[in-house]
Amino acid sequence: MPVAVELDQVGFSYRPGQPVLTDVDLTVEEGEFVAVAGPNGGGKTTLVRLALGLARPSSGSVRLFGEPAHRLSRRETLGYVAQRAQVGTEGPVTVREVVSSGRLAQGGLFGPLRRRDRAIVDEAIADVGLGDLADARLGHLSGGQQQRAFIAKAFAGEPSLLVLDEPTAGVDAESQEALARLLGRLHADRGVTMLYVSHEFGAVEGIVERLVLVRGGIVFDGPPHALPSAWHDPSHAHARK
Amino acid sequence: MLESEFMRLAFATGAVVGLLAPAVGFFLVQRNMSLVGDGIGHTAFAGVAAGYLLGVSPVLTALVAAVAGAVGIEWLRSRHRAAGDQALALLFYTGLAAGVVLASFAGALDVDLFSFLFGSILTVTRGDLVLVAVLGFAGLALIGLLYRALAAVVIDEEGAKVAGVPVAALNVLVAGLAGVTIGLSMQIVGILLIAALMVLPVIAAGRVAWSMSSSVLLAMGIGLVSVFAGLTVAYYADLPPGGAIVLLAAAAFVVTSALEAVRARA
Q: What is the CATH number of the domain that holds B131?
C-alpha cells in the first residue's frame, strides 16, 4: 500500500536539552485507521503537528504522501478536527455553515459555494446524522453533536488524511462510543486514512486496526488486542470485556 | 435637517461607516478581539496629530497610522512576539502618548482635536465623503467576496491552516480593514468611540441571529440605524455624534437581549 505518513528518526524539542520526542519511526499506510494514544505531555500533539507539517522536526524527516510534510503541495487533502471548536457555543453559526467552511480549500476562496460543493456539504451532514439539525445553531447542540458537525466539516473537504486531535474531550462516555462507531463507519465507507489522537483510546479500541502509544517516543505499536492488559483504559466498555 | 449640506455629507458618510464598521467588527468579535479597535483608534489619534504637525490632511495620516497599527498588532499576535492583550496594550498606550506629544508640538491640543476624539457632524467635507465612499465600498466588496474564507477562519483557524487556507494573509486583511474602518469613521463617531460601533452592533445582533450570515447582516442593519438615529439626535440636541451613536447601539443590545429572553420563554 502507498504510504500516507512517514516519520523517520524524528526528534523534537521546544528547548535545547529537553526533548519532547526522540527517535520516532512511524509509517502509516493509506487507508489505515490508527489510534495515537499516550499520557498528557507525552508528545502526542507534537507528533501530530509534525505529521501535518505544522512544526519542523529538530532531527529526522517527516513525509506526507511522499512529499516533505511542511512543503506538501496538496494541503487541501488534509482534514483536521480539533479538540474544541473555536466558535463553540458563543458564535451564531449553524451546522451547515460549519460544514460548508470545510469546502473552502477545494471550492476556492472567492464567491459563493457552487452546486456540487453544496451537495457534498449536504451529504456530509447526512452522513454524521445531523440532517434534521442542519440549520440549527451549533451552540444549541450537545457536545457530541457539535463534534459530529466538525467531523462532517472535515469529511466535506474529501480528505485523504484525517487527523482527529482529542475529539472526545469533554464528551460523555456514551457520546464517545457513538462517535467512535460513526468514525468506524465513515472509515469503512470512504477508506480515508485516519489518525485518532487521544489520551483515552478505550472508545476506539474496538474499531481501530492499530494502536500507537507515545511517551516521549513510541512505546507500543501494534493491534489493540496485543496491548498488555495493564495499559488498557479502564473507563471504557471495551477494556472491561 | 437635510437642507444643510454638512448634514447631507454627515449622513452619506455615516451610511458607509454604519455598514462597514460592524461588517469588519464581526470578524474581530468572533475571534475574541473586540478591543483591538480601541488600540487601533489610539494609533489613529497619533496619525491625526501627525497630520496637524506636518500640515497635511489629518484624515489621510490617521488612515495610514490606523492601518499600520492594525497590521502591527496582527504581526505581534501571530508571531507570538507578545500575547494578544500585551500587543494591544503596547499599541494603545504608545498611540495615545505619541498623539499627545505630536499634538502638543503642533499646538493642536484644542477643539479641532476634540472633534476627532468624539466625532463632529461639522467636519466632513466633500473630499472626505469621496474617500470614505471609495474605500468603504471597496472594503465591503472585499468582505463580500471573501466572506466564506473569513468565516472559515473564524469557525476553525487551525483546521483552515492545516487545509492550506492562507490564514495569515486573511488575518492581515481583517486587521487592515479594521484600520481603514477606523480611519474612515473617526470624523463621524470619533476615535475614542469608533471601536464601539464595530463591536456593539455585532454583540446585539448575536442575541437574535439564527446563523453567522444573518448575524453579519443584522449587525450592519443595527449599525446603519444607530448612525442615522445618532446623527439626528446629535443635530437636534447639539451633541457630539459619537456619543449619541454609540448609546443607541448599546440600546439596540438591550432591545435584542429582551427579544432573546422573550423568545426563550415562548
A: 1.10.3470.10
User: Which residues 20-39 of B are in CB contact (within 8 Å) with A?
Assistant: 30-31
Q: B207 in a domain, yes or no?
A: no
* Calpha distance B202→B223 (Å, rounded): 9
Min Cα distance B199 → chain A (Å) is: 14
Per-residue pLDDT of chain A in tens (241 residues, 90 and over written 9):
788 899 999 999 888 878 889 898 999 999 899 999 888 888 888 888 888 888 889 999 999 988 888 888 888 888 888 776 555 556 789 999 999 998 888 777 887 888 999 999 999 999 888 889 999 998 888 888 888 898 899 888 888 899 988 877 766 777 777 788 888 888 888 888 999 888 777 777 778 889 998 888 888 888 888 777 666 654 554 444 4
Handedness of CA A182, A185, A191, A193 (dihedral sign): positive
B250 within domain boundaries: no
Residue of B31, B157, B211 lying closest to A93 (CB–CB):
B211
When divided into structural domains, chain B yields a total of 1
Residues A135, B211: C-beta atoms closer than 8 Å: yes
Question: Residue A214 is placed in which grid cell?
Answer: 507515545
How close does chain B come to A129, measured CA to CA in Å? 20
pTM equals 0.84
Interface subset of B 79-118, CB within 8 angstroms of A: none
Residue at B212 is within a domain = no
Report angle CA A20, A84, A34 to the nearest 5 degrees: 55
Fold assignment, A3-240: Rossmann fold (3.40.50)
Q: What is the ipTM of this complex?
A: 0.83
Domain boundaries of chain A, sorted by first residue: 3-240
B213 and chain A: CB distance < 8 Å anywhere? yes
The rounded distance, in Å, linking the Cα atoms of B187 and B136 is: 14
Question: What is the rounded distance in angstroms from the CA atom of residue A9 to the CA atom of residue A21?
Answer: 10
Which residues of A sit within 8 Å Cβ distance of B?
Answer: 52, 54, 74-76, 78-82, 85-87, 90-94, 97-98, 100-102, 104-105, 107, 109-113, 135, 137, 150, 153-154, 157, 163
Q: Is B156's CB within 8 Å of A82's CB?
A: yes
> Which H or E run includes B256?
helix B241-265
Kindly state the cell numbers that stand for B263. 423568545
